[in-house]
Amino acid sequence: MPNSFYNVKAGFVNIFGKPNAGKSTLLNALIGEKLAIVSSKVQTTRHRIKGFLTTDQYQIIFSDTPGIIEPKYKLHERMMGAVKSALEDADVAMLLVDINDNWEECDAVFSSLRLKVGSIVVLNKIDTADKEKIEAAKAFFSSKSYCKKLVTISALAQNNLQELLDAIVSLLPEGDPFYAEDELTDLSERFFVGEIVREKIFELFEEEIPYQTTVLVHEFKHKSTLIKIGANIIVQRETQKSIIIGEGGKMIKKIGSDARKDIEKFLGQKVFLELFVKVRPKWRENDLFLKEYGYS
Ligand SMILES: Nc1nc2c(ncn2[C@@H]2O[C@H](COP(=O)(O)OP(=O)(O)OP(=O)(O)O)[C@@H](O)[C@H]2O)c(=O)[nH]1
Q1: pLDDT tens digits for range 279-293
Q2: Residue 128 CA, ligand 1 centroid: distance in Å
Q3: How many Å lie between the centroid of ligand 1 and the Cα of residue 280?
Q4: b/e string for 57-87 if b means 16 or more Cβ within 10 A?
Q5: Whose CA is nearest to atom 22 of ligand 1?
Q6: Is the separation of the CB atoms in 244 and 19 below 8 Å?
Q7: pLDDT, position 42
Q8: Å from CA of 184 to ligand 1 middle
Q9: Is the Cβ–Cβ distance between 75 and 108 less than 8 Å?
Q10: Atom 17 of ligand 1, residue of closest alpha carbon
């Protein structure tokens, strides 16, 4: 872990917006050369980490949200549930709107999320709108309950980005940075490995199981020809443990082999992956467990 920080604020910022709202353009503009692109390969269900922005005062970890919003369809609570939980795993939600898009539709989506985390409405592409339109959009969104802050930007023309960063930092919690300044540490590799295993659980099981589960990588050893990884899948109840293991160990084998393939791709090395399932009743409500599992 870095030790040169005397700051600091650090946290996860989730970017949420319809396709084409300008998410990629914005990230590139915000992070520029300072970006440590982590991996586009890691497409985990809760966080898809896109990059870090680290200064001596803060570390922002940008990720985006799974699930495409298609406001033409009626929004199902359950579908939005996954998006909501992803957003609420973050410290700050950035709700990106193309100013030329349909504001009512965007509002319907944002409102349905009933976010509890601080959110910033970011009106993008203001280079394509006149003053009246920008003012009207500001008036429209700033009165909404999810809108803690509102910033108007042009990601393409790189306008008002400092203002946006200031708004983000003002909502970030204080805390030590999660990642080293310059490179990925073993620790973050562990983090991603855990996320990959978690992703497989999301893919293979019904809704309740993934939300009751976390993954803790307890061993990460470089051997001569491979990396030996041991991870615990933590569940809350014995019944969940049997579901994860499956008949004759079928499911846990599947999680293991799917995860191993992705981990090998991510690390670029052969991996020996050993998975265990542990029951920790109410781990989600237990501070010590949460801390141990990296949710402190
Ligand atoms: N005029 C203008 N165009 C922008 C701005 N930001 C993004 N764009 C354009 O909008 C289009 C979509 O931008 P992306 O950054 O790819 O959008 P995205 O949200 O990442 O899209 P998906 O990857 O489909 O989710 C591109 O053609 C961008 O050049 C802006 O501030 N002004």
Answers
A1: 988 666 665 555 555
A2: 12
A3: 44
A4: ebbbbbbbbbeebebeeebeeeebebbbebb
A5: 19
A6: no
A7: 36
A8: 28
A9: yes
A10: 22
Burial of 144 (0-12, 13-18, 19+ CB in 10 A): middle
**pLDDT digits 0-9 by tens, 262-276:** 999 888 889 999 999
**ipTM of model:** 0.97
Q: Which residues line ligand 1 (CB under 6 A)?
A: 17, 19-25, 124-125, 127-128, 154-156
Domains in the chain, CATH or no CATH each: 9-171 (3.40.50.300), 186-292 (3.30.300.20)
pLDDT of residue 284: 61
Q: How close is the Cα of 25 to the center of ligand 1, in Å?
A: 6
Per-residue HEC secondary structure of the chain comes to CCCCCCCCEEEEEEEEECCCCCHHHHHHHHHHHHCEECCCCCCCCCCEEEEEEECCCEEEEEEECCCCCCCCCCCCHHHHHHHHHHHHCCCEEEEEEECCCCHHHHHHHHHHHCCCCEEEEEEECHHHCCHHHHHHHHHHHHCCCCCCEEEECECCCCECHHHHHHHHHHHCCECCCCCCCCCCCHHHHHHHHHHHHHHHHHHHCCCHHHHCCEEEEEEEEECCCCEEEEEEEEECCHHHHHHHHCHHHHHHHHHHHHHHHHHHHHHCCCEEEEEEEEECCCHHHCHHHHHHCCCC
Q: Name the residue with tokens 């396709």.
A: 19
The β-bridge partners of 41 are: none
Taking the CA of residue 154 as reference, the ligand 1 atom at the shortest distance is 31
Neighbouring-strand partners of residue 220 = 229
